[in-house]
């Protein structure tokens, strides 16, 4: 059974990962979509070089899907929800060796917002 891939949408219905994918050159986008399909197929069994856990207690639960096309490197940050749902929260082109804290904070905030919304839905 395939895992579920969910593209995070903010409260305005905007999906930053979709927007990110739309901005990539065609072949890079195809590689990114293939990486998402690998995540959907293999789930938590998918390991390096495709996936790495983001280190640091502040970013607990976040992972990055690593995409490289030629010399271009991009990342899609996601987290696991409900055991088999992969929530893709943020995508960016990586220009430095270390993942910028700004990008991690965006992903973390979107994860927390998503989880907060789900908690509110469960209470209602």
Please render the helix and strand layout as text.
Blueprint: E1 4-7, H1 16-23, H2 26-42, E2 51-53, E3 62-69, E4 72-81, E5 85-93, H3 101-123
Parallel strand pairs: 1-5
Antiparallel strand pairs: 2-3, 3-4, 4-5
Compressed to H and E, one letter per element, the order equals: EHHEEEEH
**Can you identify the CATH superfamily?**
RelE-like
**Which structural class should the secondary elements be placed in?**
alpha+beta
* Strand tally: 5
Radius of gyration: 14 Å
State the share of residues found in helices, binned by percent: 25-40%
Number of DSSP helical runs = 3
Strand content: 25-35%
Distance between the termini: 30 Å
Largest sheet: 5 strands, mixed
Fill in the CATH topology: YaeB-like fold
Q: Return the CATH architecture.
A: 2-Layer Sandwich
Spatial arrangement of strands, main beta sheet: 1-5-4-3-2
How many structural domains in the coordinates? 1
Overall morphology: globular
Fold and architecture overview:
By secondary structure, the chain is an alpha+beta fold. The chain has a single domain (4-123), classed as RelE-like (YaeB-like fold). The chain is built from 3 helices and 5 strands. It has a 5-stranded mixed beta sheet with strand order 1-5-4-3-2. The termini are far apart.
What would a concise description of this structure say?
The chain has 124 residues and is an alpha+beta fold.
Structure characteristics:
single chain, 124 residues, alpha+beta, YaeB-like fold, five-stranded mixed β-sheet, 3 helices
